[in-house]
Amino acid sequence: MLSIEVYKSDGIALLQPHGPLTKDDFVSAAKEIDPFIEAEGDLKGLIIWTEQFPGWTSFGALVSHIRFVKNHHKHLRKVALVTDAKVGDLGERMASHFISAKIRHFGYEKLEAAKLWIQEEE
Q1: What is the CATH number of the domain that holds 19?
Q2: Which of 31, 50, 83, 113 lies 20 to 30 A from 103 at CA?
Q3: Is residue 117 helix, strand or coil?
C-alpha cells in the first residue's frame, strides 16, 4: 500500500510506502497528483518517505513505477528520497542521469529538512 498526500498550498506530494509496491499504487498516485498538475502546473517536489525501501510485488509493478516516473518527472522540480535504505544514495546518483528533477537523499528522520529543501528557490 502507498499513502499519497498532496499538499496543495506547498506544491509537494508525499508518497509513503507501507509494504511492497503494486501496479495499483502507481495508478492511485497518478490519480492524486495529475489533477494538481493539470490545475496548478508543476509540483515543486515529490517526497518519498520510507524507513527501508519495500521493493515491488511483481515485475509488472516495477514497470508501472518506471512508467510513473517517465510520465511525471518533467512536472517536478525536486525529488527528496527520505529513507535510511542504502538505495537512497544509489537512487540519488542513478536517477539524476534519467530525470530532469533535482534529487537529494535525506535520512528517514529528516522529513522536515526535505520539505524545506523543496521550498528553497534555486
Answers
A1: 3.30.750
A2: 31
A3: helix
In a domain, 32, yes or no: yes
Q: Flag whether 122 is in a domain.
A: no
Q: Is the dihedral of CA 30, 33, 35, 39 positive or negative?
A: negative
> Which range of residues forms the domain containing residue 38?
2-117
Task: Report if residue 6 sits inside a domain.
Answer: yes
**Angle subtended by helix axes 23-40 and 59-72, to nearest 10:** 10
pLDDT attached to residue 54: 87
Q: What is the DSSP letter of 56?
A: B
What pLDDT, on a 0 to 100 scale, did the predictor assign at position 86?
72
Q: How many domains does the chain have?
A: 1
Between CA 47 and CA 77 the distance in angstroms is 11
With cell 537512487, the residue in question is 91
Q: What is the structure's pLDDT at 97?
A: 47
Instruction: Report the mean per-residue pLDDT for the chain.
Output: 87
User: Taking the complete model, does pTM exceed 0.85, yes or no?
Assistant: yes
Predicted confidence at residue 8, as pLDDT, reads 92
